[in-house]
Design brief:
Blueprint lengths: L3 H7 L7 E3 L5 E3 L11 E7 L9 H14 L4 E5 L4 H4 L8 E2 L2 E4 L1 H5 L5 H21 L15 E3 L9 E3 L9 E3 L1 E3 L4 H8 L3 H9 L4 E2 L5 E2 L1 H4 L2 H8 L6 E5 L4 E4 L14 H10 L2 E5 L4 H16 L5 E6 L1 H8 L4 H19 L6 E5 L6 H13 L4 E4 L1 H4 L5 H10 L15 H13 L3 E4 L1 H12 L7 E4 L19 E10 L4 E6 L18 E3 L2 E3 L3
Parallel strand pairs: 3-15, 3-16, 4-14, 4-15, 7-10, 16-17, 17-18, 19-21, 20-22
Antiparallel strand pairs: 1-2, 2-13, 5-6, 6-13, 8-9, 11-12, 13-14, 21-22, 23-24
Helix pairs in contact: 5-6, 5-9, 7-9, 12-13, 13-14
Length: 530
């Protein structure tokens, strides 16, 4: 691992443009954002994953290292891991093997304090809301109409529904709940803000609840915005680290794509485009979730446009979607990949197909996938980022560089479209749904918010990552289904509606045997945090 000063120097950063957080981490100042962008943006997405994930982050890091190896000016722009999943099912989120970010333990746990700052700012606002209710301050809020939850960066299903204010003198008794920090609107706001002024404006227009006359109440009205800014000032600065091969990486922001918008911060991506010729980024889960939100929310909001798109596939995932473990299942499972290719095409791109090789994969199965890609007119790369690092992604780097071109940003819908039309555009084009059914609650909320002037906002779909549909048991390429939207939330500060589908929840729970049971500190070193 190189000193972080060497990584900063390689990027052409002066000592005044960054601050060290120890020997191997740093925060970057935002002044460089005033320069013109020079780089090409590469989005890495994937097929619908199995619960273990298909190595999208590992492939992204491997691609960045491959570009770096051949002397290209390249930088990674990736999301921060959440502590909750680290101790839950998936473990760490820094890649793996010869394609991972370092120092991995530091990045996975407490990374430069960003998640803690977001949680603190969010919960400060929650405390000020309850204090406002307790003292009956103006504007007089309706305790039944408080919509601001609390958050914590841990999977804890027992906090999904709670009661607060119980006991004498402890405030107004009311129902409340927790989300995981990755689903916090403050997380989304930080990730979509361009600078401190934008951060302040977005925080100030959060809707925390409604007064007795049914008017929205905001942090600006509660006098909370300034204190939230104080907690988030340093968290807005992107973090600089490196890969195991010394490729520079900006790791900043961590919204989940199944319950939030799933992309790293705008400031980190924008900074990368000013520091390097190639910026490799990713969006969470498969293209139907993170990829769509990358285009329709992040790029549309920030004026970004990728030059290339990569779809990561594994033999394991494709066989899973084909309902077996033989070559015939692989062929059937290609329908899932085919749908994601079509979805990428909705945004004007032809993706590069990256096979993420796993130990035990058969060459004959890889040949089937390569032949399918060739017949579809798609570039294909057989990659081994885990076992061979950048060298294992050489073919992928060739394919990405050959396919990169300037493509004007295209979105699925226009701001003037109705919220229902936007939901239908996503459901039909990304998922293959025949139609959408809104609950009466969702219909009523969207109608009310449209009357209040929020109808122009984009849609952030909260949906299972296990299926193209809202039913996690429907693998492959489901057809003939209807997408059910049971509720809708308004994130006025972040600037989107959150449509809740199926049984999706915004506070995950731990599995029966969580990864936490395997994590320890032995001889001063953390073990089991994979």
């Amino acid at each position: 691992m190189k000193p972080i000063a060497a990584i900063a120097e390689r990027l052409g950063l002066s000592s005044s443009e960054w601050s060290p957080y120890g020997h191997h981490k740093a925060k970057l100042e935002l002044g460089r954002l005033a320069a013109a962008p020079r780089g090409k943006l590469v989005l890495v997405s994937a097929v619908t994953p199995t619960p273990a994930g298909e190595g999208k982050t590992t492939t992204s890091i491997g691609l960045g290292q491959a570009l770096h190896r051949r002397g290209e000016s390249a930088i990674l722009a990736l999301r921060e891991p959440s502590v909750g999943p680290c101790f839950g099912v998936k473990g760490g989120g820094t890649g793996g093997g010869q394609s991972q970010l370092v120092p991995s333990d530091d990045i996975n746990l407490h990374f430069n304090g960003d998640f803690h700052a977001i949680s603190a700012a969010h919960n400060l606002l929650a405390a000020m809301v309850d204090g406002h209710l307790h003292f009956k301050s103006a504007p007089r809020m309706d305790a039944r109409k408080v919509v601001w939850k609390r958050v914590m960066d841990m999977n804890d299903r027992s906090l999904r529904e709670i009661v607060v204010g119980m006991g004498d003198g402890n405030g107004v008794v009311r129902s409340a709940s927790f989300d995981i920090t990755a689903a916090s609107e403050v997380m989304a706001i930080l990730c979509l803000s361009r600078d401190l002024a934008d951060l302040r404006a977005r925080l100030g227009r959060i809707i925390v609840g409604y007064d007795e006359d049914k008017n929205p109440v905001t942090p600006d009205q509660l006098g909370a915005t300034g204190a939230m800014m104080a907690l988030l000032k340093d968290a807005l600065l992107p973090n600089l680290v490196q890969s195991v091969e010394g490729a520079p990486a900006l790791v900043h922001g961590g919204p989940f794509a199944n319950i939030a918008h799933g992309c790293n911060s705008v400031v980190a991506t924008s900074m990368g485009l000013r520091l390097a010729d190639w910026v490799v980024t990713e969006a969470g889960f498969a293209f139907d979730l993170g990829g769509e939100k990358f285009f329709d929310i992040k790029c549309a909001s920030a004026g970004l446009a990728p030059s290339a798109v990569v779809l990561v596939a594994t033999i394991r995932a494709l066989k899973h979607h084909g309902g077996g473990d033989d070559s015939a299942a692989l062929v059937r499972g290609l329908a899932n990949l085919e749908k994601h290719v079509e979805s990428v095409g909705c945004f004007g791109h032809r993706p590069v197909i990256a096979l993420n090789r796993r130990l035990g994969d058969l060459d004959s199965d890889a040949a089937v996938l390569r032949s399918w890609a060739s017949e579809a007119g798609l570039r294909f790369a057989d990659s081994n980022p885990y076992g061979a690092g950048g060298e294992g992604c050489s073919e992928l780097a060739d394919a990405v560089m050959a396919s990169a071109k300037d493509v004007p940003l295209k979105t699925l819908y226009q701001p003037s479209d109705s919220p229902l039309a936007k939901i239908e555009a996503i459901a039909k084009n990304m998922y293959g749904a025949e139609g959408v059914v809104l609950s009466r609650t969702a219909e009523r909320k969207l109608a009310d918010w449209t009357k209040r002037g929020f109808g122009h906002l984009p849609i952030c779909m909260a949906k299972t990552s296990a299926s193209l549909s809202d039913d996690p048991t429907l693998v492959g390429r489901p057809r003939g289904f209807t997408l059910n939207v049971r509720d809708v939330e308004l994130s006025a500060g972040a600037g989107f509606f959150v449509a809740l589908t199926g049984d999706i929840v915004r506070m995950p729970g731990l599995p029966a045997v969580p990864q936490a049971k395997h994590i320890d500190v032995i001889d001063g070193q953390i073990t089991g945090l994979r």
